[in-house]
Amino acid sequence: MALKATIHKAQLQVADMDRHVYGEHNLTIARQPSETDERMMIRILAFALNVPADEMRGKLELSKGLTDVDEPELWQRDLTGHILHWIDLGQPDDRRLLKAHGRAEHVSVYGYSYSTAIWWAGIEAKLTRAPRLSVWQIPSEQSLALAKFAQRSMQLQVTVQDGGIYVSSSADSLEITPIALKLASE
């Protein structure tokens, strides 16, 4: 018998002063048995960093992710189903990213493993024709520290200011400094 997903709930307060995006979001996360705390928390972080100021062009959603290879971890779709923003985690291959680039207005990747720089060095040249792609590295020691925030029920505050990210809960706080490996040129 297959193991079922574990449901996690996160009350997320976002104050992104760089983009002027503020709001509260209640997330229900279906964490698959193969997903680590670290990966789940990076999904929540990616949500906080990309949530739109309003839902006029569609809302950002957690997708089926690990259970459906044709979907990203998060995406923003408009009311017609057109993909505005495709967000992947980890180290997807160049074919997946180019396919996503053809389907979406913008593609973002958040790598969080110590080997992200090695992965990126191996595929960077293959992605020169993807101007709408942004690739970020979350330093592995910071992503591992973020994993310690994982609970079945979470209340998190994410503040973004001058490129720095501050995550806090009632018990702890953490500063995250993402590294831009590639920024979209549009």
The CATH topology is given as Restriction endonuclease-like alpha-beta roll fold
Fraction in helix = 10-25%
The whole-angstrom Rg is: 16 Å
> Runs with pLDDT <50, length 5+?
none
Shape: globular
Q: Tell me the strand percentage band.
A: 35-45%
Assign the structural class, choosing from mainly alpha, mainly beta, alpha/beta, alpha+beta, or little secondary structure. alpha/beta
InterPro entries: Restrct_endonuc-II-like, YaeQ, YaeQ_sf
Protein name: YaeQ family protein
Organism: Roseateles oligotrophus
Identify the notable features of this structure and list them briefly.
about 190 residues, five-stranded mixed beta sheet, 4 helices, 11 strands, about 40% strand, YaeQ, Restrct_endonuc-II-like
What does this structure look like?
With 186 residues, the protein is an alpha/beta fold. It has helices at 37-50, 94-103, 116-123, 140-147; strands at residues 6-16, 21-31, 60-62, 74-77, 83-89, 104-111, 133-137, 153-161, 164-168, 173-176, 179-182. Strands 3-4-5-6-7-11 form a six-stranded mixed beta sheet. Strands 2-1-8-9-10 form a five-stranded mixed beta sheet, covered by helices on one side. The longest helix has 14 residues, at 37-50.
